[in-house]
Design goal:
Nucleotidyltransferase, domain 5; 4 helices; alpha/beta; single chain
């Protein structure tokens, strides 16, 4: 099964993909956060057979929701109403900082937002692994 991770920004939405078997996120091209996003995402879902979307939810250093979190919650509600596949929310704390650190050491050019989406998928895989080991 293939899943997509999203890092929602005001201007761009970072996109990453991963197989639930290999669990290795790969950054894709960031998409514009405008009226074309839903159509582009639906094309991506159909083309890749995506079964799940994982969206990062920012929190402040105290773990509380922020103004940006509330915007993203509205975005997720709208997205969920347009899709027939599950939309999962995970903590995205420091994903952009981790992406910046990775990019400063990388010789390849990637979208910062899409690298952050990779870290969101990693958080998702870590979370489901921890839940599985609790059983």
């Amino acid at each position: 099964m293939e899943i997509i991770g999203l890092d929602i920004g005001d201007r761009l939405i970072g996109v990453a993909r991963a197989s639930t078997i290999a669990r290795i996120p790969e950054p894709l091209k960031a998409l514009p956060n405008n009226g074309t996003f839903s159509g582009l995402l639906l094309e991506l879902i159909r083309a890749r057979g995506v079964q799940k979307i994982v969206v990062g939810m920012p929190r402040n250093m105290s773990g509380e929701l922020t103004q940006q979190s509330r915007k993203i919650r509205g975005f997720i509600d709208q997205l969920s109403s347009e899709l027939t596949i599950p939309v999962i929310v995970v903590d995205e704390s420091l994903s952009s900082l981790r992406a910046d650190e990775f990019l400063s050491q990388s010789k390849r050019q990637y979208d910062q937002d899409s690298v952050a989406a990779c870290y969101i998928l990693e958080e998702y895989f870590t979370t489901i692994k921890e839940k599985a080991s609790e059983v």
